Amino acid sequence: MPPARPRTTPRNPYTRLFAIPGATAFTLGNLIARLPMGMFSVSAVIMISGARGSYALAGAVTATGLAATAVVAPWTARLVDRHGQARVAVPATAIAALGSLSLLLCVRYGAPDWTLFASYAATATTPNTGGMSRARWAYLLKGDAPAVHTANSFEQAADELCFMLGPVLAAFLCGALFPQAGTLIGVVLLLTGVLVFAAQRATEPPPQGRTHSSEGARSPLRARGMPALLVGFLATGAVFGSLEVVTIAYADERGHKAAAGVILALQAAGSCAAGLVYGAVKPRGPLVRRHLLCGAAMAALMTLPLLAVTLTGSLTALSGALLVAGMATAPTMVTGMTLVQHRTPEGRLNEGMTLAVTGLLGGIACGAAGGGWAVERLAPAAGYWVPVAAACLALLLSSAQACATSTPRRRTAPPPASSEA
């Protein structure tokens, strides 16, 4: 049984969340564990490129890790659902930590290039800490849709905050201390956070074991509306990946490459703030319609950076445009993750949310590649068409899955009753 909720209902919905016994403790551990997610790839690029003198090698190593994560993460999440968060997350994190430490040592002592790929691929066992946290909220707040909405909004804001601070922290540590510092401290934070998170057993959803019912045994990929929803996450990830690459290239063209980090941080800050505000507002209307409206807002606001660079060419105007454009991404992600929770078969929640995150990461990789191609073949300013196109694709997919789920399934009529005695 989940811990008892407080009888009084505070005005602030976030205060209500953290009044639940154990919620603050598992959230703190999860935030510590989540921060390194934005540190590892940047740290690896700085460490490998500095030691081997090749950004191509560094990029290939991190891409290999991403591909391995896409394969391993859903399998790890399935084990979490089946055997429990603490029982699986702690050893999975230990394996990932050993992979990061192996990468550090291989770079430090000049091991062959193939060892870098093998080491970084081992980090794919890192559990989806954000998904596990959302699963805890879904368990603690079962049947309370407004509170689940607030919890998902908080988790999305936390994602934005960690991915905003992680790269900055990694770059600072690698520059101020030594090239391996970002990876080393990231490992310490990851292990510490997961251990603190896993120790909060009172708020952990019970393990489902091997589910033999037709509903629980069904893969989330086969749930109605899920395939289009997951492809929508892929398109949304392409928005993020292309924005990052194109903004860096545009700032570099203007002679202010160092400012790119600050500009991108503003986009994440806008998304973080919007996520918290969105979570404090009571949701209205059907969830599918809210997701569609949020997707439309994201597609519309993604035109602002394109207009800023086309009409003004000013980095200041671009910064403001990205700040505003970022305000639509968190609500889109919040409603999308809530839809994933609703459509995932019972007992497979971690797996369903991990599939969504995997789609998002794959989209980031595709968006980065598409943005890089546009920058090289066209111009940095023209590259802002890529996030616009990706946002429009996400909107079309949202429309398609909304239509698919709103159309009732045709049922086979029962045979007529026999008149024979």
UniProtKB/TrEMBL annotation:
Membrane as UniProt keyword: yes
Kindly give the Pfam families that the UniProt entry links to this protein.
Answer: MFS_1
Q: What is this protein called?
A: MFS transporter
The organism of origin for this protein: Streptomyces alboniger
Keywords assigned by UniProt?
Answer: Membrane, Transmembrane, Transmembrane helix
Q: Where are the membrane-spanning stretches? A: 54-76, 88-111, 169-198, 228-251, 257-280, 292-311, 317-340, 352-375, 381-404
What GO MF annotations does this protein's record show?
transmembrane transporter activity
SUPFAM superfamilies named among the record's database cross-references: MFS general substrate transporter
Q: Which InterPro entries match?
A: MFS, MFS_trans_sf
